[in-house]
Amino acid sequence: xxxxGFLWVTTWHPSVQRILYHALYEAMAKWFGHAExxxxxxxxYVDSDQEALELSSADWPERYPIYLYxxxxxxVDLHNRDVxxxxxxxxxxxxxVKRYLGARRVLGVDIANSAIAFCQRxxxxxxxxxxxxDAQELPVADAxxxxxxxxxSAHCYPAFDRFLGEVRRVLRPGGYFLYGDIHNADEVPKLxxxxxxSRLTVLEHDDISHGxxxxxxxxxxxxxxxxxMEAPQFIHGVVHDFVGVVGTRVPAGLADGGKRYLSYxxxxxx
Length: 270
Prior knowledge:
Elements: H1 2-12, H2 17-31, H3 48-51, H4 63-73, E1 82-86, H5 92-100, E2 105-110, H6 113-122, E3 128-132, E4 145-151, H7 160-170, E5 171-184, H8 188-196, E6 200-207, H9 209-230, H10 236-243, H11 249-256, E7 259-268
Parallel strand pairs: 1-2, 1-4, 2-3, 4-5
Antiparallel strand pairs: 5-7, 6-7
């Protein structure tokens, strides 16, 4: 009931959407502030190409969320490029891009102060930086990045078209927007309309729901385990739903087609 109530309010009362999501992610960052082994919040992805990615032993437990970042971010060559991640969360994705994909500089921006504090404490990598900021008013200069990355974050934004305007503003000519998120099937036309109006060129567009479903099945026990270890018992059901444990709302919606996980590669014209 708590999850359904939260989703109903954010869907039908967009004026309070940002406030509620901000409060949720601040709370999650505080509840799990000492869980330094949990650095990625996404639903994960798996296919034969991603399984070939060689990860360190430290990164192996979070391989499925890392595979999702690799599936979305590695569609273009980020070597020696400046990358902005919007909605960087617990920072594991930004760290992966810096350490594995060879980016020159990665800046992670997130609206939750607690998440930024966590990232600054846990991810001490040269060329990796975290800063608080709003996705719809990005705290960076015009034409300052070669790529903008956004993974499972934009569904929290009240105005996706405004965010796309910010993406275009901060990208250099020829720069890329690398995007992946889950959407209700009936909301996809609205998403596509916003992208068409963004003045960004669509280079790739894929439905990767099958790979996300497979990852959630393989990763479900780990997600339940750290929930049991870290979360107060009275919110276990809410956290299970939030992280996509098998049998909850997200994997069920992806399986029956009510939800779709979409990825895009967009480019700003020269």
